[in-house]
Amino acid sequence: MSSLSVPAPAAPAEHLDAAELRSMVQHDQMVSVRQSVRAAIPINAVLTLAALLMAYSGDKLALGLLWALLSALVNVSRAVVCRLPYRRPHEPASDAAAPSARWWRTRGVHWHLRLTSLLGLCSGLVWALVALLCDAYTSPQTLFYLTVVCGITAGSVTYGIAYARVPIMFITPALLSVAGCLLVAGGFDRQMLAVMVFVYLAALIRSAMQSEAAFKRGSLLKNEATVLADRLRQAHEASHAATRELEFRANHDPLTRLFNRDGFAEVARWRLEAAQEHEQCLLMLDLDGFKAINDMFGHGVGDRVLQDVGAWLGRELAPLGAVVGRWGGDEFVVLYDTSTAALSPEDVARLLTQRVAQASALEGGQLGLSVGLCVGRGLCVTDMLAFADEALYSAKRSGGDGFRFFDHGLQQALVVRRDVERDLGLGLDTGGIVLWYQPIFTAGGQLHSFEALLRWLHPRHGWVSPEQVVHAAAATGRARRLLAHVLTQVCEAARRLDAAGLAHLPLAVNVSPREMAHLEVDELVLETLRAHAVSPHRLQIEITEEVALNAENTHGKLARLAAAGVAISIDDFGVGYSSLASLRGEHVRQVKIDRSFISGLDGSRDNQLLVRTILQMARSLGIDAVAEGVERAEELMTLRTLECPLVQGYHLRRPAPLEEIIQQP
Ligand code: C2E
Ligand code: CA
Ligand code: CA
To answer: What residue ranges define each of the domains in the chain, with the CATH number in brackets?
Structure first.
């Protein structure tokens, strides 16, 4: 994930780039110069016309016309130059404009200012030529021309405050010609006047330069303020963006960019409150087979699968106006308003499960989707989530890769589940949660060992399945306590079996994948055995193939147990993801062939073949094999002909309390 970039505070004014500011000031000068030239041209034209009239009255029409033509030419050029495009600060040297415009654009502000100054000089020279119209300021019209030239020069300085060079270039030739002519004409008063014109010229030049300096100062301050305001705005926007990003991260899952638990719950709560009278559907989705992908191909591939599924869900469900979130791990949640959607909840669930299966099959994968749905009106988000979760749990239990609605039956199951979770602590404390034992026999009918199985007669709901007890313990944070309870009971059973003369018989304890992954099983087992002075050789741990495969997390624990002498047994063998790989670990001492191969074994050639193969494999690896779930005499007979060394099942003996077993071994 990209790291969060917190915006730097706005730089103080002295850290502004001087060159950048200079070019901004120049740009302001350019704009102002053009404005002043545009304002001066009409005045210039009117005065030219007046001078032409005066020339006519002084019998110099031809000369006057020529001069006025020249003046007009210069004025037109100045007007045209004022409209030429130029390259603004930060603008690249060329762009897609017309070729001619492009050429002018290659010229910066400074170049254009100089061009304007040059044309100012031309205009000044034209006004210097006024001397020709009044016989070098000696004709009777002299006063008029003198006043006009002085006026126009004063005006140009007044207007041209931004860039002194333009008015200076204009006024200098005009006034120098006046002063020069007056000097040449001679006489005290004319010479005094010439001196005054020089003084006037100097004053105007000084004034023009002061105006420019003041203009630049003002422009600099304005631009500094603009740049600072700009930076502040940018900083403000960046901090806003950072806040938005932080908010996004608080409510979204970084991997899939979907809502996370908190984000989903909040949006769902808001939606449900806003449309209480509408029927809503909450779907809880769980990928089947994802764990195997993670284990076999690594977390990188697993993450990519989750990203793809998340993106696909977002796309697929967008037309329903659904809120989609990642609930954690490989679980996703979806909420949509069924009253406004074109698809029924059943259609949505079917579509999703089918598409995942199809897409996965195309890629040669084995990914599936289980869906739990809760449809209702006026429900709160917490209940909807709990109900959909219950439905999902049920869908998973019945094999996965399908969907299940939360219905009356599940509602009952949920009540039971909640009661079981609530009463579990009490069951552990008061000894309500006990172990029953199912014997395992040799082919010849000799007692070989026992499997310890959890039993709980719940005061209200009757017998609760061991899976439910284990699930409730995990859900209520009592997993370690339950395992410790089981191990203690097994150790006590071992002591009682010793006392009953059955000292040689091992006891097997089931450890779920979750317990194996999350608890320090090795420590707990060895500690309990020590505390009860029971030999580790007396104990077997039954784990599933999934656990055996997930070596990363459990290898050390299994190795320590095996090294201490505890036998590791692979339970439900043959139905897991990769049976052979699970046998690779050097710690495995036994496989328990899953009940599904044994049931109806006598009538199934295929199962006989598979069982025979497993038995051969176990023999060649030097490990024991147990056939589980033997319910009929025919199955037992078949197992005997297949030379299965160990058997377990209702046909031989059902699980029973220890006292019963001891009384009737
Ligand atoms: P499992 O390890 O496969 O245990 C064998 C299950 O098959 C037991 O069910 C047993 O009562 C049943 N069974 C035995 N013989 C037959 C038969 O001939 N036919 C049929 N249909 N079933 C037979 P149970 O006691 O309900 O346990 C279910 C599962 O709960 C166990 O399956 C085991 O995975 C889990 N479990 C039981 N006790 C514990 C425990 O202490 N800790 C953990 N983590 N899991 C346990
Ligand atoms: Ca077992
Ligand atoms: Ca089993």
So the answer is: 18-232 (no CATH), 261-406 (3.30.70.270), 418-663 (3.20.20.450)
